[in-house]
Amino acid sequence: MKRLEGRNILLTGAASGIGKATAERLANEGARVFCTDVQAAAVEATADGIRTGGGDAIAHVCDVGDPASIEATVDAAMTHFGTLHALCNIAGILHFVHTHEETLEAWNRVLTVNLTGTFLMCRAAIPHLLASRGTIVNMSSTAALKAHAWTSAYSASKGGVLAFTYGLAIEYGKQGLRVNAVCPGGIETPIQKAFSLPEGANPNLLKRIMPFDGHRGPEDVASTIAFLVSDDARHVNGSMIRVDGAMCT
Known about the structure:
The protein is built from 7 helices and 7 strands, in the order E-H-E-H-E-H-E-H-E-H-E-H-H-E. The protein is an alpha/beta fold and 249 residues long. It is globular, with a radius of gyration of 17 Å.
């Protein structure tokens, strides 16, 4: 029996990067995965690839910055599955800019997707996860733990996700719900590959956020998430796990 056989999992950000790798890993371990993303064609490609490989996945378009879209997505997942065992909040956005040049619109957009979207998805899913004594994995970042230049909005949002995770774990732990966070760093994803320094930025600051063992693929984060949603992590709650090659040590 595969470790996640019989589990129904809702996952955001499944179109690419860590979200796609996680959807594939969870399905490979036997889970039925409800793959969501704002990119319709790309999330369908993820689900189709899983099905082609013998896994069980369905694609659904969801904008985690839109409360109505989130409610509709959780309703659709419950209609499809009947029971929900895990929620993985992986969708996120990032841009690099000098803080004094950051616009309020851009700041609000990052916090809306990364932090408020995580809250809204949890709020909609928690009643169902309490019924199944399930689990939540939230995507934070090493940006929540150490100084990252040019990412004020992103760092603030990921710090908020981490604090939110701790609060949920203690609030719902006695009801059987586990909530943990993963803090990746030095992972090759579309966000990381799109990195460009703001004009006039000091490139020497990059040395502070480089992992010792080089950049790794999103599958290294996916394996950690698979562990957290499995029974192997039944005594892991309210924890933050770094996947960063010791960059924050």
